[in-house]
Amino acid sequence: MQTDEAIAGDGAPAEGTWVARPLILAAIGLAAGLCVHLILGSGYHSHLSTIEAATLTGVVLVAGLAGFTLERRLWWASILFSAATALIGALIVGWSGSPEDWSVGEGWRMVSLLLAVAIAAPLFQAARDEGARRFPYPVVHDHAWTNVVLFGACWVFVGIVFALAWLLAMLFDLIKIDFLKELLEKDWFWRSLIGLAFGAALGLLREHDGVVRLLQRVVAMVLAVLAPVLAVGLVLFVLALPFTGLNALWEATKSTTPILLFCVVGALILANAVIGNAPGQERRFPLLRYGAMALAAVMLPLAVLAAVAISLRTGQYGFTPERLWAVVFVAIACLWAAAYLVALVRGRRDWAARVRPLNLALAFVVCGVALVLATPLVSFNAISTRDQLARLESGKVTPEQFDWRALAFDFGQPGRTALKKLQASTNAVIKARANEVARAEMRWDVKDTGQQARNRAEVTANTRMLQPGATLPEGLRERMAQGHNCTREQKCGVLLISESEALVFEDGCFAAPKPTPARASPPPPVRIACRDGIRYRLEDGKWEQGSSLRATGAEDDQAISAGYAAGKVEIRTVPRRQVYVGGVPVGDPFE
């Protein structure tokens, strides 16, 4: 790679570049696209066998790694690294079994595998350039940033190619020449075109090193400028916590952890954009420099808050594969944040010199951890299943509160094995529920009894009877909970018309209007979601949501058709039933 000082103004290829590389990478991309199509077949489906999934992973990895690492010098080393890494990735995916049997957490294994590969690539590139197992931080950092910039730029190029192709297809379609349009709609063509465009873009950009360097410097500069902005926001957030308290964070534990983790990752990226890969690339402007130091200082408090949030979540609801992955991410964030804080405390203004080698060491650690977690050696499904069963058997959660849907469909084979065990439980309620869940073919066939119980409680708390002394029928309460009426923050009023009829009003639709301001203002927005009352009827012992329109049967339809043909259309005066609120008629008549 060239130094920044050697950037050619016109982006021309540097001396000693490999002119044939764009053609080679374009051919590799085209071949990879065709292979992907042969594996996937036509149409959009996810029914891949174990062999197909493993082969698909291997093809994508070997083509991608070859494209990013291939050099004329030691080209064979790049090919061996790409093939070996792709083989390892394919074996890991094959070890995980058929994708049809994967649980919802298995996707994170693929993310973990790709993360390990993304970290291993610049480490290999640095060792290859050094000709030994040495990993100088400036070289590793440079290759990592370059790979990221190339990846983004290549996908932009693919998007431009497809936009241009569809523009030409639509143009020729105007004169009834639809060959190109039909070609773009064929799976084999657009998949091959993606590979060809990506490979060609990667080859061209790698040959024009000055363009890539320029893009890299622009991205780094933009990120560095953003560092003080994020630093001010995060520091103010941490300083405000003693005054606002932590209760709001714990009440939103479902979203607290990912938000805090994103903040830590953002701080990590922006701080590194400021410090660069060597002292000569470090931004010396005080605002940027102190912004990076503030980011390094605030990362650990945010990571600790994320750890507390996920611990509260798991303590309240137990382990699931997703929460265990969150625990892993939080642990890595805490480790990285602690390293940055130690470097800042010990190095102070020269903290960047201490943090760079820590970055390299942590990259090796994360690469190894990600590779292990990508394999079935550590089964988050089994851990989650044991934990949830222990909570059920100990009585910490009731059979109604237990997440049967997750056990049957989210925890993979360990969950299904545990479900069979529960079918023989001595607890009659657990046994009956397990047998019912075992008959479900899809996850949505399993009733979420825990959510239904929470909805019933919310309906009870949010509902007021509009007639003094009236009580809400239990069947109606159940039906309202199933329809999510009067749940969460939605307050309602219920009017019992008779023993078999009821109207449910949403309080928000009948709120008192605000006083008219002295100054002219635009009219209030129309509340499209508001209804004049949801009608429920008791039919065959069950409350059902009904319509205000009169239903007609087959005999009525025949009479209407005969009467209309004979011209028997008339207007009659009939009594009606109508809802009045505050003496004003509301909505359509009942009948």
Describe the structure.
This protein has 591 residues and is mainly α. Helix content is 63%, strand content 5%. The strands form two sheets. It has a five-stranded mixed beta sheet with strand order 1-2-3-4-5. Helix 10 packs parallel to helix 12 (321-347). The longest helix is centred in the first third of the chain and has 37 residues, at 137-173.
In a nutshell, what does this entry contain?
By secondary structure, this protein is mostly helical.
Distance between the termini: 81 Å
The main pleated sheet reads as:
5 strands, mixed
Spans with pLDDT under 50 lasting ≥5 residues? 1-12, 524-529
Q: Classify the helix fraction into a percent range.
A: 55-70%
Note the run of SSEs as H and E: HHHHHHHHHHHHHHHHHHEHEEEEHEE
- Structural Rg: 32 Å
Mean pLDDT: 84
**Strand arrangement, major sheet:** 1-2-3-4-5
Structural class: mainly alpha
Number of strands: 7
Our estimate of the beta-strand percent is 5-15%
- Overall geometric form: globular
Number of helices: 20
From the structure provided, what is the oligomeric state, counting identical versus distinct chains?
A: single chain
Observed structural traits:
591 residues, mainly alpha, two-stranded antiparallel sheet, 20 helices, 5% strand, globular, disordered N terminus
Write the layout of secondary structure elements.
Blueprint: H1 21-40, H2 50-69, H3 75-95, H4 106-130, H5 137-173, H6 179-184, H7 187-207, H8 209-244, H9 247-251, H10 253-275, H11 286-317, H12 321-347, H13 351-373, H14 380-393, H15 404-409, H16 412-422, H17 428-438, H18 449-462, E1 463-465, H19 474-482, E2 492-498, E3 501-506, E4 534-539, E5 542-545, H20 554-565, E6 579-581, E7 584-586
Parallel strand pairs: 1-2
Antiparallel strand pairs: 2-3, 3-4, 4-5, 6-7
